[in-house]
Amino acid sequence: MKNITLFKPIVLRNSLDDMTLSQKEIALDLLSNRKLLVPGSDGMHFITLSRKQRPKEKLPKFYLYGSEAVCYYRQSLGFPDVSITDIEIDDIVVEAEDFDTLYDILFLLNRVSMRNDRYRKLLEYGAPEIILWNEYRMLQEYVESLQDNNWCGHPVINRYNTANPDEEPEWEEEVRKSLADIGYSLVKYKQENESVPAE
User: Fold this and answer.
1) Could you tell me the pTM of the whole model?
2) What mean pLDDT is reported for the chain?
3) Residues near 119 by beta carbon (within 8 Å), at least 6 away in sequence
4) How many other CB atoms are there within 10 angstroms of residue 99's CB atom?
5) N or C: which end of the chain has fewer CB within 10 A?
6) Could you give the angle at the alpha carbon of 45 between the alpha carbons of 20 and 134, nearest 5°?
7) For 29-42, what is the mean pLDDT?
8) Domain ranges of the chain
9) Are 159 and 172 in contact (CB under 8 A)?
10) Cβ neighbours of residue 106 closer than 8 Å, sequence gap 6 or more
11) Contact assessment for residue 11 and residue 140, using Cβ atoms and an 8 Å cutoff
12) DSSP codes, 65-123
């Protein structure tokens, strides 16, 4: 499996803890597409979206949404860049201690890769805005699950049945292991590599 270069940057929710409560609330609204960010010469503005998509003609020509909007918002407030743009698979594989953990992490990595490719293709095909918003949000949530599978209380489950020769097979469920289980942080890895001077 090749390293994953994300088509758009991803910001994890646990990376927003350095913001104030009100700033974090705005950032979470941007991540969940409840707000759009509109940059302008006089500063930035937010558009609050209702459950139904606003008519296309009411949206400005240029706006940011999802993690990309959070990156711009944090930059305007002077916070460090915590966005993830690349996932180095070789480094993750080295950190995995056993095959079962590696298998689960590779499964989650594959989900991220497929969702990333899907978003890129939909953008190339000119899909409607609301579909792109949803795809970008789901990509962000897939990266969240890769980092910590318990982030939202609904982890990705591995289901299998046990073969007992004397009894009926029983279905078992296990929460898939994620990067948090092996002590690996995508954000920390990025910060460590950015602090190393280029030769």
Assistant:
1) 0.86
2) 88
3) 7, 8, 132, 135, 136, 139
4) 8
5) C
6) 85
7) 91
8) 4-195
9) yes
10) 1
11) yes
12) -HHHHHHHHHHHHTPPP--EEEE-HHHHHHH--SHHHHHHHHHHHHHHHHHHHHHHHHH
